[in-house]
Structures are given as structure tokens and as C-alpha cells.
Design a protein that fits this description.
Length: 546
């Protein structure tokens, strides 16, 4: 029983001609320029699989024991080829091919040979698939139960194996036999998988080759120190685990966040996987990752700094229901165009590198920034939501030499936030004028109005930011967007005003802070709204003229 990821097809791909096919790791790398994108089972499979491919490219592009590229010049040489170099990739994959066999008896890929639980119990493979019911994780619409586990092909099992290593839930895990840190057959205090602690951000392009190149980091001693190598070049893992800092990107990309063994069985249709052993794996110290992890934005944590006595940045995770573009300030976090204090925010290193290359080989390119994350519940032991969003980002917005386009994009977000805030205040004031005194209801009115504006601006913002390609004038583009924001805000405000009851038109006394009262009616609420909107979002010249 064998299935080797280097040469057996397991990566569903969509080619640039529209054809769907399944390729091996070797084929996907060598034909990356012919592939539009990976077509995986779920969006959360994308980051761990892409990072595995990146680790292989880093090793193939290296010089001896040192992964590459090690300079901007080496990165540009790779870019100018228009495809990944075949000879280095083939040589490297041939050298490590024996470590990519999914069912190898001594060194199964991403697993621990002979791993067993302390009571020799195995679990259903659904434990590795978040939208299927297994143990404590019980999605409402899952038709799968532990008594009838799904049967996965080796290709499917390989994809879900990588997914479990990266995103698995936290809390108590079954103890592995031979784990010295286990107690009473359990391992406690487990964090989520390494990607589960991040708000993953990955720039993607028109082909898989573009995507891989956009995410191929230039390595140095800071992000790839001595001994940095992927998991398949290290000695095979055993049941023992430890908490430590990765030596660099390659170890981080292939982190064994869990100890797993796939239990394969022979069927008439070939090998199938229905059960597995899943135990605690290596633990990351998140507070130490901000200088290494390139695929998330960071926020400085004063509380953690007081606790640890050093500078600490914590990853910014995605918020369900919040469009990606509304967090653009944290994503770009350019000191000269944000209102935050220096060093409060740290952008993803992958975007910092693209900013450096924006005026060179990447000039004029349009990126699609892909955001992926998971929201956990009940002590991180269950999965509540999956976050997926794509945002077009022209390279001009990342430009280091001309910050005007970046400022225009961030000002566009600020305009939308200001308008939403004033619209929410109008909705709450109209409710107060009508007699509402319940803070929960007032907050609900405020949030509904804000969400209505964000919903109507969402697709418009995505189309608008895609036009910031360096052509025209940034100020004209900013005026165009402000005009759109004002127009949509006034539309929703008019709808709110048309629906007010007669009691709101008459008005009433409402309580203010410090036992003060004032008379509030719909007319006063409207007047304050329009005055605040005109103050924070002045009319663009063309709108004022008309």
C-alpha cells in the first residue's frame, strides 16, 4: 500500500484553459504557470497546501543546505523566468521523495509511524474534517455520524491531513502511548493548530505561478536561521512533543501541530482511509512569531509585554461578518499614512516584500488578497465559522515611492467608517425621539443602519479599489469614492426618515449624561446627521458644484 505525494495526483487544479484536473506535487510545481488556481475541497485547505509547496520551492531554489532565494536579485531572476525552474525542483523532489509516501511503514508523510493511543482506540476520519460531525464538533447539517465514518481516497486523506495539522481544534486530546507529558490518558492545554491562531492573508495572482511567487519570501538569518528545514528533512517524529520556536519559515510552513496516523484499509477500489489516531503535537509560542510568520497582520500587545518583559505583537484574526476591506488599515499599516502611533500595527511580511518590489517587476499588477480564518467556540474545542474573503489590491496601493494611492485607499475606508458611524447615530436618535429607552434596542438600530451601509458599499468598494492602478490622479479617485459614500448614506438616511412614526416627529425629552435632558425630535436628529456628515466628509468639488 503506497501513495506518494510527489508523483501521485492529489492536488485538484483548474488550468488556465478552464480544464479541471488532478496533479501531483511535482506536476503542480512544474506546470504552475499553466494552472489558474488550486480547486480544493474547502478554502481552509489552501494555506497549508500552498505553504507546503512554498517550502519545497525554497529548498529547491537554495544553495546547498541554505534555502533560497537569499536576496531581491535572486527573487527577480526567478520571476523573470516566467515559470519555476524544472531541474532544481526535480533534483530536490527526487532526493526527498521517500519522505512523501502517505502510507510508508517507517516514515509516513506528516505522520508518526505506529502511533497509537494509550487505550489503542482510533477515531473516525471525520475528526479531521471540520464540517462533519465527530466527537464534540457537531455541525447542524452534517449527515455523518461516528458510527458511519466517510471513506476517503488517499488524495482526499492527504489534503485533510494537512488541514488537521494546521487548523485542528484545541482543548483536550487523546494521549499517545509513549507521551511522557500525558496524564490519565489525556493531554490538556493544547492550542489550536498554528493557522487557527492567525488571520491568514495571502496575495494571489492570475496563475498559480504568480501566487507562489507573490508568497515566496526572500530569506535571511531573521526569518530562516540555522537548522531551518521542512518536517520531511528532519528525523521522523514520535509520540513526544515540545513547545519551541521554529528555526525559520520552512519549519513553520510544515509545522507538525498534531501527531497523527492515518489508518488505511485495502478495498476493491484501492486504499481507503476511514479512521485515524490524532494526538497532541508541537506547540507554537505565538508571541515569538511576529518576526517570522509572513501571512498575518499583527497588533502590539501591551498586556503581554508587561507579562513577558519584551516587545510582543499578537496576530490580528479575522472577524466574522466584517468585510476584509474594512480592516485595510491594519493590513497595510504604513506608518506615514495611518493615524495610529508608530509600531502599534505590523503588516504581513509578505505584503512588506511586495511593497519593496512594487516599483520594479510587479509594477502595474493587480493582486487578489485572500483572507482565510477560523472562529472557534467553547474553549476553542469546536469550530463555529470559517472566514473567507477576497479583496483586489493593485500593486500601486502598496507602492513605497508614491504613497498617494495607499492614502487614497485608506481614506476611502475612513470615509465609509465615518458615514456608517453617523448613520448609526441617526438611527439611534430617531428611535430615542420615538420613545425607545432600551440600550439593547438602540444598539440594534445603530448596528443595523451601519451594516446596511456597509452592505451597499461592499461591491462598490471592491470595484473602486481595483481602479487605483497608478493611472489618473489619486485625489480624483478619492473624490469619486466619497461621492459614492455620501450618495448611498443619504439614500439610507432618507429611508430611515420616511419610516419614523409621528411620535418621533413630535419628539420628547431624552436623558443625557450627568442628569441633563434635551428635547429631541426627527428634525433635530436629521440636522445633526447632515452637519456631522458634511464636517467629516466634505462634499467633493463636482458634487458641490452640482
Amino acid at each position: 500500500m503506497t501513495f506518494n505525494l510527489v508523483d501521485d495526483p492529489w492536488l485538484p487544479c483548474l488550468l488556465i484553459d478552464g480544464t479541471a484536473t488532478s496533479l501531483s506535487l511535482r506536476q503542480a510545481l512544474l506546470r504552475a504557470h499553466e494552472i489558474q488556481d488550486l480547486a480544493l475541497d474547502t478554502a481552509t485547505q489552501y494555506p497549508p497546501i500552498l505553504r507546503l509547496m512554498l517550502a519545497a520551492i525554497h529548498r529547491a531554489a537554495g544553495n546547498g543546505p541554505h534555502p533560497g532565494p537569499r536576496s531581491a536579485k535572486e527573487w527577480i531572476l526567478l520571476w523573470e523566468q516566467g515559470h519555476l525552474p524544472a531541474d532544481p525542483i526535480n533534483l530536490y523532489l527526487n532526493d526527498v521523495r521517500h519522505r512523501f509516501d502517505l502510507f510508508h511503514p517507517q516514515t509516513p508523510f506528516g505522520q508518526v509511524a505506529g502511533l497509537r493511543s494509550s487505550n489503542d482506540e482510533t477515531k473516525t476520519i471525520a475528526l479531521a474534517i471540520p464540517f462533519l460531525a465527530a466527537g464534540n464538533n457537531a455541525p447542524i447539517f452534517s449527515s455523518v455520524r461516528d458510527q458511519e465514518p466517510p471513506s476517503l481516497t488517499p488524495a482526499e486523506a492527504a489534503r485533510w491531513l494537512l488541514h488537521a495539522l494546521a487548523w485542528d481544534t484545541a482543548a483536550i486530546k487523546t494521549a499517545a502511548a509513549g507521551d511522557p507529558k500525558a496524564k490519565a490518558g489525556k493531554t490538556t492545554g493544547n492550542p489550536t493548530g498554528p493557522l487557527g491562531q492567525l488571520g491568514v492573508l495571502m496575495p494571489t495572482g492570475t496563475t498559480l505561478w504568480h501566487t507562489l511567487m507573490y508568497n515566496l519570501m526572500i530569506l535571511d538569518n531573521d526569518n530562516s536561521g540555522s537548522g531551518d528545514m521542512p518536517s520531511w528533512e528532519r528525523p521522523p517524529a514520535d509520540a513526544r512533543w515540545r513547545e519551541h520556536i521554529p528555526a525559520g519559515l520552512l519549519e513553520l510552513y510544515t509545522w507538525l501541530g498534531r501527531r497523527i496516523r492515518l489508518v488505511a484499509e485495502t478495498t476493491l477500489d484501492g486504499p481507503r482511509v476511514r479512521r485515524l489516531v490524532l494526538c497532541a503535537g508541537d506547540r507554537l509560542r505565538t508571541a515569538d512569531l511576529y518576526q517570522t510568520e509572513p501571512h498575518t497582520a499583527w497588533r502590539r500587545s501591551i498586556a503581554q509585554e508587561k507579562k513577558l518583559g519584551r516587545t510582543v505583537f499578537m496576530p490580528i484574526v479575522h472577524q466574522p461578518g466584517r468585510q476584509l476591506w474594512r480592516g485595510l488599515g491594519a493590513i497595510l499599516a504604513h506608518q506615514s499614512v495611518t493615524d495610529t502611533a508608530p509600531d502599534e500595527l505590523k503588516p504581513p511580511d509578505v505584503l512588506v516584500q511586495l511593497r519593496m518590489l512594487a516599483s520594479g517587476p510587479l509594477a502595474g499588477k493587480l493582486l487578489l488578497l485572500r483572507a482565510i480564518g477560523m472562529t472557534y467556540g467553547n474553549q476553542n474545542a469546536t469550530i463555529e465559522e470559517t472566514y473567507v474573503d477576497d479583496l483586489p489590491v493593485p500593486v500601486a496601493v502598496l507602492g513605497l515611492n508614491d504613497l498617494r494611492w495607499e492614502k487614497a485607499a485608506l481614506d476611502g475606508v475612513r470615509d465609509a467608517e465615518c458615514a456608517a458611524r453617523h448613520l448609526g447615530t441617526l438611527a439611534a436618535n430617531l428611535a430615542k425621539a420615538a420613545g425607545c429607552k432600551d440600550d439593547r434596542l438602540l444598539n440594534g438600530r445603530r448596528d443595523n443602519a451601519r451594516m446596511s451601509l456597509y452592505a451597499t458599499l461592499d461591491q462598490r468598494f471592491r470595484r473602486w479599489i481595483a481602479t487605483l492602478d497608478g493611472g489618473g490622479l489619486p485625489q480624483e479617485a478619492a473624490y469619486q469614492w466619497r461621492s459614492t459614500v455620501r450618495h448611498r448614506t443619504h439614500q439610507i438616511a432618507d429611508e430611515l426618515l420616511w419610516r419614523v412614526p409621528p411620535t418621533a416627529i413630535r419628539g420628547r425629552l431624552v436623558n443625557l449624561a450627568r442628569d441633563r435632558t434635551e428635547w429631541l425630535d426627527a428634525a433635530l436628529a436629521e440636522s445633526r446627521f447632515r452637519r456631522a456628515l458634511d464636517t467629516d466628509l466634505p462634499q467633493p468639488p463636482q458634487e458641490a458644484d452640482s
